[in-house]
Amino acid sequence: MRDTRGVSDRTPADRTIAVWDLPLRLWHWALAASVLAAWFTPTVYDSLHRIVGYTVIGLLAFRLVWGFWGSRYSRFRMIGVRLRAAPFYLWNLRRGITGRYIGLNPAGTLMLVALLVALAVSAITGALSVTVTFFGVWWIEDTHAYASDAVIVLVVLHIVGVVLMGMLQRQNLVRAMITGRKRIRGHS
């Protein structure tokens, strides 16, 4: 007997499955808004920039917890497998071979890890740079600047990847991150 929890009762061509839970979706969009706000506020609105930076640290802490205790597709349990599969997956993408993944595909997993690491480095060095001990320390400031630039580059790559993958798979991945549901094929 097949497990149909979370699968809607629509026709097989347009059935959907619950993938991204509400806490994960709220986290994703709150993080996106925070990164955007952080990018436009340094040196002009330092207080807001600092608040947004601390918000990012809180959001990263939540994601770490949710990666171990959240719902099925929020957990980190497949990260190692998907990261090992990422080079082969990216190689196959050159030929339009995407495979089908309910949760993150290997490229998405690689992007998740890269963004979380870059955000952590950016947020932590940003927080350190306003302490008495590390204020004005060149390598903290440089690391914060480089990590922040890396975050923006990764965000742009993430958006391009989502758009391209959505086109290749004929799936609205942005809507999936809003509704939490992805269309599935081949399940009757």
Write the layout of secondary structure elements.
Layout: E1 16-18, H1 22-40, H2 46-69, H3 79-93, H4 106-128, H5 138-169, H6 173-179, E2 181-183
Antiparallel strand pairs: 1-2
Helix pairs in contact: 1-2, 2-4, 3-4, 4-5
Quick summary of this structure?
With 188 residues, the chain is mainly alpha-helical. The protein has helices at 22-40, 46-69, 79-93, 106-128, 138-169, 173-179, and strands at residues 16-18, 181-183. The chain contains six helices and two strands; from the N terminus they run E-H-H-H-H-H-H-E.
Spatially, the strands of the biggest sheet line up as 1-2
Terminus-to-terminus distance: 12 Å
Evaluate the radius of gyration.
Answer: 19 Å
Shape: elongated
Ranges where pLDDT stays below 50 over 5 or more residues in a row are 1-11
Number of β-strand runs? 2
Structural class, from secondary structure content? mainly alpha
Q: Work out the helicity level.
A: 55-70%
β-sheet strand percentage? under 5%
Largest sheet: 2 strands, antiparallel
Count of helix runs? 6
State mean pLDDT (0 to 100 scale). 89
Describe this structure in words.
There is one protein chain. By secondary structure, the protein is mainly alpha-helical. Helix content is 64%, strand content 3%. Helix 1 (22-40) packs antiparallel against helix 2, helix 2 (46-69) packs across helix 4 (106-128) and helix 3 (79-93) packs across helix 4 (106-128). 15% of the residues are buried.
Main features:
188 residues; two-stranded antiparallel ribbon; mainly alpha; disordered N terminus; 6 helices; 2 strands
